[in-house]
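INFO  loader      accepted 1 record
INFO  loader      residues=498
INFO  predictor   begin
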Amino acid sequence: MLEMRLPYLKNKHFYHLLIVFIISRLIFASVLPLGVDEAYQVTIGREFDWSYYDHPPLSFWLPRFFANFFGLESILIYRLPSVIFGSISLYALYGIGMQICGEDTAFWSALLYCISPFFFFSGGVFVLPDVILNASVCMTLLLFLRSQDLKLQETKSSYYLRLVIIGIWLAISFLSKYHSILVPAALLIYFLSTKKRFYWIFQSQIWIVALVGSLGALPVLIWNYQEGWPTFVFHSSRANAEINILNFIKMFVGQLIYLSPPTLLLSIWAFFAVHKTEKVKLLLYPSLFIILGFNFLFFLGANGFPHWTMPGWMLALPLVAVFLKQRGQLFKRKFKILLVVFMVPIWLTICAFTLHVNTGWLTAKIETTPEWDNTLQFMRWDDFGAKFDDFSGSEYSMKVGFLNWVDAASLGVVLSEKYSLTVIGNDPHHFKYRETNLKAGVGYLLVPSLKADEEKRIEKILRDMGEYDPDVEYLHSVDIKRGKNEYATVLIFSMLFP
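INFO  predictor   done
INFO  writer      dumping tokens
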């Protein structure tokens, strides 16, 4: 029964790849401390809201749902939804490859996804909206491709049920990240590009998918309407209208690293040279729409990130696989050698970094930690939560403040829900929507710092916070170990919060 519903599991090569992929991701999900963006989503997601300041809600909801379901707060539990959606992405990419050009193309599509640093971590380990976006986009396109092959073989009711399921995956994409709107926009251009495809616009099946999918946008629209559209103001502020070649080069180098140079450069070649069947074009339109669109913004100096283009490069992976098949075995062997040459050092570096953020082994024998060794944004703060509870006593609804949303996210994960979190700085992100009912009062200011910078940091905080409260007072510090050495500390101040 499972093989009938998930037919690609019958292929032993894909099955083995999937198992290795899941085990590897579970290992990294267990040993890597939460990053800042992950901690932010876990912390903010503890309070249900229809949507959130910077992203749609699903990646905020899922860690809380899994923690409540298992009755356990742990990094692995928070990341478990990402591992699941990452496996769905792998399955869907393999399926897209099968639909386009057969088993060999399918395997290469999945393999290239697996070994890409970005898709491995941000597409299946970290608590990020990209994980759900990748899976939902791939599943939407896979099911659409399969629906065309099965249309004449199915009953009318089963065919319409399949369209509803496609709409559900589209709705999930709208609940994950704002990039999702680019896929249906690109497909609309695809349908409008020829008379034959234009006929689809008048078919009921397209509107069934669109209607069901649009339901996923409702939570975002509801929340933004209630709050005055802050999300759209935030993201539109990143745009620019002045040519900035340096910014474009920086973003392009980032894309090379995220995807791997051989894969990205071969993707560009494939865009021009791959044999363009109708199924290939169905991937080509959204892929190029996303890649060219964001790179044009980078060229205009947009304050963005290289990973914005990654959904487009993900959809290019089956095109690369088709291109490899067209070029023959000798070309494929040369590409394999290039992949090994580039990917082995990258993955050795990733493993070394994973070990270092947990143990500090690179600088463990150096008496004074060098300035470059700053892993505060990848720290395990677990011990601090219990120690702060002991320090603060049994007071509930105590106000706990931070200088910025990064500190609030990092430490908020390990604080119990009895504290009311607030951010003093000018960029509180979604934390400001948790403060609306809080009154001014005395509380604790928490400031994470490197142990080596403790004294300078205390002096600076007392000087800066004097503008808010002249009676601000340094109380205590809680030291946190990285491996066997005391590496970080959390400074605790008492002050009056506005």
